[in-house]
């Protein structure tokens, strides 16, 4: 049995767990994660992290220990068959993954979008289409809202070869969750990601959502009004799409996502409704983030900078990001643990992340 790669999560959160598990599958390499979410007030696996672990295990028939709530140590060994020489599987550098249809219930308002993000890189080793239906929170704190996944993340990664789409059956806000989405991924081949310059601004798309219980207060419309009034008029952004949705949900809630289209890609900015927070303020918060982006030179927003790193490690290339956040540093360090050669060049207002030698799982 191959000795597992030992990884220390004492200074990281859930992102570390999700990324480590995805890399384990992509590279067909067993891992042992210790001190899981060690820097959080409630360390160990919570419902949303356990759901990712169980989903990854089901996809590749992995051997797992520590798959229980509160666990601070995990051992995960992908079930991909090695070749006769005892090394990589014969049909690919990191093995090939069967597709199929799966159903996941997080059991709380844990983020469905973070689980979907963890699965997207597996497109590069799929042998057949994969469909995963997830029940949980679709628009909750500390994670991308559903419309960010659908209208920012997926359109951008599709530009570089990932074939994936997301369908929504029901929204799920905090605290009850209960939202249901289906992520569909097809076998994909990544192209090198070259995203260092922002092209000319092409337009603005606005997606605003309210639960049915908030419809009589015109929350979705007021969120949109707040965002549009706050956006920097100097940018000359033309509103090319405005989508207002009233959605069934077990809990009251709202969300707004702005998407800026430019010549080389897209960038997204989101805000969630909160009890006692005026709907207009929700739109203003998203617009403030968009205005900061428009003042800079990076082609991607702060959150996409982090999300793209896994694809960059698999495909190679370079991306200019607006800031080196803690999430960026943590993910870069983890990718390097698996053998990615990452160069991080800090500039005055931005930074450029480059990968010259992609990981095997992207081939």
UniProtKB/TrEMBL annotation:
Pfam family, one: RTC
Acidic residues composition bias: residue spans: 70-84
Gene3D superfamilies: RNA 3'-terminal phosphate cyclase domain, RNA 3'-terminal phosphate cyclase, insert domain
Amino acids binding ATP: 303-307
Gene Ontology cellular-component terms listed: cytoplasm
Recorded catalytic activity of this chain's protein: a 3'-end 3'-phospho-ribonucleotide-RNA + ATP = a 3'-end 2',3'-cyclophospho-ribonucleotide-RNA + AMP + diphosphate
Source organism, top-level taxon: Archaea
PROSITE patterns named among the record's database cross-references: RTC
InterPro entries reported in the protein's UniProt record: RNA3'-term_phos_cycl_insert, RNA3'_phos_cyclase_dom, RNA3'_phos_cyclase_dom_sf, RNA3'_term_phos_cyc, RNA3'_term_phos_cyc_type_1, RNA3'_term_phos_cycl-like_CS, RNA3'P_cycl/enolpyr_Trfase_a/b, RPTC_insert
Catalytic residues as annotated in Swiss-Prot or TrEMBL: 327 (tele-amp-histidine intermediate)
Primary location group: cytoplasm
EC numbers, comma separated: 6.5.1.4
Occurrences of domain RNA 3'-terminal phosphate cyclase (ranges): 12-339
GO biological process, one term: RNA processing
Family the UniProt entry places it in: Belongs to the RNA 3'-terminal cyclase family. Type 1 subfamily.
Function: Catalyzes the conversion of 3'-phosphate to a 2',3'-cyclic phosphodiester at the end of RNA. The mechanism of action of the enzyme occurs in 3 steps: (A) adenylation of the enzyme by ATP; (B) transfer of adenylate to an RNA-N3'P to produce RNA-N3'PP5'A; (C) and attack of the adjacent 2'-hydroxyl on the 3'-phosphorus in the diester linkage to produce the cyclic end product. The biological role of this enzyme is unknown but it is likely to function in some aspects of cellular RNA processing.
Protein name as it appears in the record: RNA 3'-terminal phosphate cyclase
Organism whose genome encodes this protein: Natrinema versiforme JCM 10478
Gene name, Swiss-Prot/TrEMBL: rtcA
